[in-house]
Each structure stands twice: as structure tokens, then as C-alpha cells.
Amino acid sequence: MKKPILGKQTFLPDNTERVLSFEKFVKEVYDKNKDEKPLYTGRYFVIFRDGISGSPRAMSFFKSECGLSVANTREFVSTPIDETQIGDADALIYEDLGIALVGGNEEQIRILENAGAGYIIEPEKIVYVPDEMPAVLNVPSTWGIDATQAMVSRYTGQGIKIAVLDTGFDATHPDFASRNVVTNSFVPDETAEDMHGHGTHCIGSAAGNLDVNGMRYGVATNASIYAGKVLSNEGSGAQAWILNGITWAADNGCQVISMSLGSRVFPGQSYDVAYERAAQYANSKGAVVIAAAGNESRRSQNQFSPVGSPADCPSILAVAAVDSNLNVAEFSNRGINPGGEVDIAGPGVEIYSSWPMPMQYRTISGTSMATPHVAGLTALLWEKYPNGTPHQIMSELRKLAKRLPVSNMDVGVGLSQAPVEQIV
Asked: Where along the chain is the active site annotated (predicted)?
């Protein structure tokens, strides 16, 4: 696995076969097809039907029958998974998830497809920052902190680790100078520094505190921050990078994993098993996993898109966006596909938060902005119930939500709220 695309032949929309680096592939195809971003990297996930117990048999089969050279995530015992350190391997087995990432040639993939009922084969998705919805007015407004009651909650996320998997983090941002921030990049050949902006904005909403004028814009103001860079400076990434980030966050004891990212899902399409395996692994390690429902809808035109991937997974909370009047955001996706429901809503329109220097702050909209609000509120609940389980925390999150007079297809149980009680 020398590079993210593994030298695999990739099929462009005009059916021309070419071999491209991942980022060049995304840029060239996206530039030609502005309205249709490419969906797949050209690699495949092989899902072992019998879970992690199938890993040894799969490794033997990959080597003997497919002629694949194989690496294993167990090689990264004390360090995060790094694709650049796998050498020339054609396949990477995720030992703890019961899946493998394969970048072999078409003949090798056909052998896998014909191997029988032991495997499910899915193409690896390209993941994107959801399309940004610029605010009408770029003015400081932290209405979401008030609407969720975070401002009057006694909890601050103290002692809780929040992982934000996104485009990285601006470590020079003065608002975070005294905070405990751990960073790691899963994007080959890029540091964890946020040269895009989206990741720093999401981290600010989830766990920031005050701006230079003393205005609070973050929910969990004392939480520890784990910034995993899983999307490039161009705002796109390979699905495996997100899986690497999820397992890293879970293995580091993060109780909340926030993902404002996704791939488009079409009506009738099922959730991605590889993501679901990763989410289940994170749950087993004590983490609640949260993701953006997506921004593809255009409600005023009666266009509704299904909840995106990975938010459509059963073990991941899907977050919709509402505005300051608690109306569903124009762009927010709907729970259309069976199993791909919206779980809860958060503030997602005209959200003011941190941005890489020198801009320092920016106001934007999206389910990307709603998701870190819910992540921060989840951290407050973890602080209140330190001995809880992910299931109990998610149940409490739903119980506290403010019911809204709209369909649960659009907002789930309602607007997420902070735990509020008088200090005794």
C-alpha cells in the first residue's frame, strides 16, 4: 500500500481507465463534473461474515489464492495506523473489525468475489466535507449555545475526551493555547495542520470556549480535544482514513467521536458495513459516535436526500440541522432509507466558531455545524454520568431533547439539550 489509491485502475465517468494518486483523481474528476463528485477510490473493503474470527483464514486465502501481499493493523500496536508505513502490501487486514482493505488488480478482486459466502465486498468510498452553506451575514452569533442550554449547564466536559475527525486543527489558534489538544494525521503526506478550516470550526463548536471579545461559542469548554485529520487540505479523503481515525480515537479512550463528513447516499441504498463495524468497535470501547446527516437536500424545491454515509449506520447518531427559529435547515437531509433515520438535531445555521489564523473566526452553516454541538452536549452528559455506557448516554441524550413540531424524519427526537440542574 504505497499510496492511497494503491495503483488500482480507476474508472472515470467517461470509462477511461487511468491510474491516479487519490488527490489528483478527486481534483480532476471533480473539476470536470462539478455536480457529481466521484464516489469511489478504486479500492475495496472485504467484510468477513464471521467477524474478527475470520481474519486468520482471510489472510491465508489472500496470500495463497489471490497472490496478495498482506499487512495487518496489529503491526501498529503502539502507534496509529499509517498507510505510508505498510510498504508494498496489497491488502490491510483490520484485525479488530473483521474487515480488510484490498487494492489488488481486477483478476484478484474477481477471485475474492467468487470465493463464496464468506465475504461481502464493498467499494471504498471517497468521503467529503459536506458542502458548506455560507451564512447570509458573517457576524458573531452564538445562538446555538443558548438554544441547547449549554450556557446555563453546570457541566463543561471536564475529564472527557472528544475526538473530532475532520480536516485537522490549527494548533496556533490563540483560543486553544491553554487546552489539552492531541493531534494525528491519517492523510498520507499531510500533517495534522488544518489548511482547510472545516476541522478547526467543528472543534470550536464542540469544545471551544471564548473568542477574543469574551463571547462563548463552544459547548464542552473544558473537554480534552483529539483532532484526527482524516480529510485532506482539499476537503476529501478515503474511507479507510476515517476508519483509521475512529479506531485511533476509540483506542485512546475518547468517549465522543464527532464526524462532520460523509458520502452521498441514494434512495434505497443500505448502510456501509465497514463503517458499522468500526462504530461497533468504538461503542465497545466506550465511545458514542456521531455524524452529520448531510447537506444535499433543497427543501424549498421539494428535494429531499437520504441521510448520508456514515451517519446512516445503526450504531452512529445522525444529526440534522435547525436554524435559530428551530426550523429545519433548507439543506438538511431526511431519514428516507430504512434504517437510515435522523436521530437528533443541532444548531446548524449561521454558526460562529473558530477558523484557522489569521481569519480566526467564521460563520457558516451545515449539518457539519450541528454535529459538533451534539458532540459537545454528549460530553456534558458523560461528565454527569461518568460510569454510564454509550447506550445509556445516547438514551439520556434522546430523553433530554427538546421536541419540535416537525416530522421525526427531519429532526429525530428533536433539538439536543444540555443537562441542566441547580448547583447544590
From this structure: 166 (charge relay system), 198 (charge relay system), 368 (charge relay system)
Name the grid cell of 172. 496556533
* Bridge pairing between strands 361-365 and 351-354: antiparallel
Q: Please write down the long-range contacts of 337-341, taking CB distance under 8 Å and 24 or more positions apart.
A: 337/265, 337/267, 337/268, 337/269, 337/270, 337/306, 337/307, 337/312, 339/270, 339/271, 339/312, 339/314, 340/265, 340/271, 340/306, 340/307, 340/311, 340/312, 341/307, 341/408, 341/409, 341/412
Instruction: Output the pLDDT for position 422.
Output: 53
DSSP class of 252: T
Task: Examine the residue annotation and report whether 82 is marked as an active-site residue of this protein.
Answer: no
Average pLDDT over residues 351-379: 96
Mean pLDDT of 169-192: 96
User: Choosing from 236, 368, 373, 410, which is the catalytic residue?
Assistant: 368
C-alpha cell recorded at residue 82: 499509517
| 98 contacts: CB under 8 Å, gap ≥ 6 | 47, 48, 50, 51, 52, 53, 54, 55, 277
Mean per-residue pLDDT over the chain, rounded: 87
Select the CATH number that applies to the domain covering 133-411 from these four: 3.20.20.70, 3.40.640.10, 2.160.10.10, 3.40.50.200.
Answer: 3.40.50.200
Give residue limits of the domains in the chain: 10-124, 133-411
**Per the residue annotation, which of 55, 90, 141, 166 is the catalytic one?**
166
Does the pLDDT value for residue 307 go beyond 50? yes
In this structure, the dihedral spanned by the alpha carbons of residues 222, 348, 343 and 285, taken in order and rounded to 10 degrees, is -30
CA distance linking residue 97 with residue 71, whole number of Å: 14
Give yes or no: 166 in active site. Answer: yes
Query: Is 368 one of the annotated active-site residues of the chain?
Result: yes
Choice among 198, 232, 305, 410 that is catalytic = 198
Please indicate whether residue 90 or residue 279 has the higher confidence score (pLDDT).
279
Handedness of CA 120, 282, 375, 162 (dihedral sign): negative
pLDDT digits (tens, 9 = 90+) for 127-164: 999 876 666 556 667 899 999 999 999 999 999 999 99
What is d(CA 263, CA 235) in angstroms, rounded to the nearest whole number? 12
